[in-house]
Structures are given as structure tokens and as C-alpha cells.
Amino acid sequence: MATTATVSKKSLWGGGIEPLKASYGKLMMWFFLLSDAFTFSGLLITYAFLRWSAPAYKGDPEAFTFSTEYWPIPEKVYEAFPGFHGVELPLVFVGLMTFILILSSVTMVLAVEAGHRMDKKNVVKWMLWTIIGGFAFLSCQAWEWSHFISGTDIATIGDVLKNGIWITDYEIVGANLNYSQYGPPAFAALFFFITGFHGFHVFSGVVFNILIFFNAANGVYEKRGHYEMVEKVGLYWHFVDLVWVFVFTFFYLI
Amino acid sequence: MEQATTNIVVQPAQRSVIMGIWKIALFMFLITAVEYVFAFLMDAGTLRSVIFIGLTIWKAFFIVSEFMHLGHEVKGLMYSVILPMIFIVWLIVALVNLEGAAVKDARGIVDVEEPATGQVDAKH
């Protein structure tokens, strides 16, 4: 039983399978990413608002010390590098993380490009590089977190709320969700929430990439006749990179 | 519909396409390098923040337009993604310096000129 609907040519979308000339899956991925961008925006807006309504340090940057009384200078917080204990290397490690993530985005583009040419061998190769890049980024983040949590050699004296009781002149080392040696409690909490939420996205991206890698290697997409799945997961992966670009600017640079 | 395709033709890679991808990547690394130059040579302030946000949006443009291929999709799709985001980025930027500063002012929060002295060696 075949019925055909007559659709005037002038209508925008006559019920075909591709509104906006994008396949269903790709379109839905775009709108999912848009909604996900709103979530990240919510976090960044919270960060911006809390930070710029908190007391700032306006003195000499050279003489800067950590205090719970004012917002820290980011360069003074993120200045550690694995293997260089005690050496001040501001933003170098986070620069390496940015480099890794952008590079893994590039290898993803190369996988998508190979997919357009039905080049299974290259899709598999570039997907593998993308997965390696993802794991490298996650490892860097794990190190950054553990360093942030365990703290530096100099403790900050400040008032903290511990188990519901205010303790004055507490010796704060490192950071947790309630207080930190680097600045006001909100500073560490926002660090954990924003980089953590982004890291969780990277982790899910790596899981998707692994699935796609095995599917491509097993010839699932070759049988299907197209590598659109690589494109869709590629969109997600680039989005993760995109969010990092914003997190990098708002959290580490400004 | 998983149909078995018997004859798969692998098209050869076009050098210009591959080089184009790497060129964009190189450009993004350069923008990041420029951000570092500003981070180290310029004192913090509104102008520096504006430069950072501008360069970030430039980088974001490359990712979305080229890597995510949005620049090559139909206009309807482009605008349905870009327009909501323009408003959101506007909101972020507005809250960074305007609204945050206004609330700070209203609450009477003052900036600190002298570094705090409450430090102690934690290696004990």
C-alpha cells in the first residue's frame, strides 16, 4: 500500500526526512548541544556574577598572597606543573591541556573527513588518536584536581564553616567544597563544578568515541554505506572543545 | 536499514582539504599564543578582559563554523543555533562587569589593597 502526499514546492518542509537539509540525528545533536550550552552558560554566568561581586585584590600582584577575604588572581593559583615542585609556571599546565584538546578536535575532523571518503582505515586511525587525546586531557585534569585539593606548602589562615560550626583562624591547606586556601569558598566550589562538569562531558565523549571506534573498525558503517555516526559524535566532541575555550578564558585568563 | 554494500570505493584524500584543516588548527594555536602574550605582558583590567573575550569568540567561531561545519549548513539551521547563543554570550559578558559590579557596589563590598598576612608554613 503506497500513498504519496502531494506537497507544494513552496512549503518549507513537506514532511520529508531532512528539515533544514540535515539528517534527523544531526539536527537533534545540534539542538541537544544548544541546550547543553545553556547549562554551561548557567554555570559561567554564576561564576561571572559571584566573582565580580566579590572583593578583588587591587594591590601589587608581586606581593599577592592567598586569603579567604578576596578573590585570588588565577595566575597565582594555577602555576604548578608535574615534576616542577616549587617552580612558578603560571598557566603553563592549563595551556598544555588546551593544546591537547584542540589537537584531539583536529584529529576528529580528520576522522570525519576520512569518513566522507569511505576510508575505513583512516577513520579508525584518527578515531584512535582522538581517544588518546581525550584520555590525555582527562589525566591532566585528574592531576590538576589532585594538586588543587591537596594544596601548596603555605597554609592560609581563615575562618571556616566546618560541620556547621564556624571555626576562627583555621589553618587551611588545599581545597574542598566548603572552604579553600586559595580564596572565598565560592572560588573552589565553582572550580569543582565547572571544570568537573566539563570533565564529565569529556569523559562521556571519550566513551562515545570508543564505541564509534569499535563500530568503525568492525565495518558497521561500511555496511551502512555512510559514516554519519562519526560526524554526530564529532559534533559532540567539538562542543566539548568549544566549552573548554570559554572555560579557559573565564576561569584561567580573566 | 542496514544494507550490505558490496563495492566500496575509497576516494583518495585531497591534499588541499587536509592542509586546510591543519591550517585552521595552526591558526587556533596562534590565537591561544596571543592570549598568553596578553596574559603575561598586560596588567589585568577591562581592556584585557575585552581582548580575551574577543579572541575567545574568534576561536569559538572557527570551531563552530569549520570543525562543526555549521558555516556550511543551511541558513535556517545556522541561525537557530547562533541567535540563542548570541543572547547568552551577551548575558555572560553583561554579568561579568556590569551587574556584578553593581551588586558589589550596592552591598558596600570594597576591594583589598594590601595582601593578607594570615599564612603559615604547612610542612609541619
Outline the structure in words.
The complex is a heterodimer of chains A (254) and B (124). The mean pLDDT of chain A is 89. Chain A has 254 residues and is mostly helical. Chain A is built from seven helices and two strands; from the N terminus they run H-H-H-H-E-E-H-H-H. Chain A has one domain: Four Helix Bundle (Hemerythrin (Met), subunit A), CATH 1.20.120. Chain B contains three helices and one strand, in the order αααβ. Chain B is 66% helix and 2% strand. Chain B is mostly helical and 124 residues long. In chain B, helix 1 (15-41) packs antiparallel against helix 2. At the A-B interface, helix 1, helix 3, strand 1, helix 6 and helix 7 of A face helix 1, helix 2, helix 3 and strand 1 of B. Strand 1 of chain A pairs antiparallel with strand 1 of chain B, so a sheet runs across the interface.
How would you sum up this structure in a few lines?
The complex is a heterodimer of chains A (254) and B (124). Chain A has 254 residues and is mostly helical.
Looking at how many chains there are and whether they match, the oligomeric state comes to heterodimer
How many separate domains make up the residues of chain A? Answer: 1
The most extensive interface, with participating residues per chain, is:
A-B, 83 and 74 residues
The termini of chain A sit apart by 64 Å
- Kindly identify the CATH topology of chain A: Four Helix Bundle (Hemerythrin (Met), subunit A)
The overall pLDDT of chain B, averaged over residues, is 86
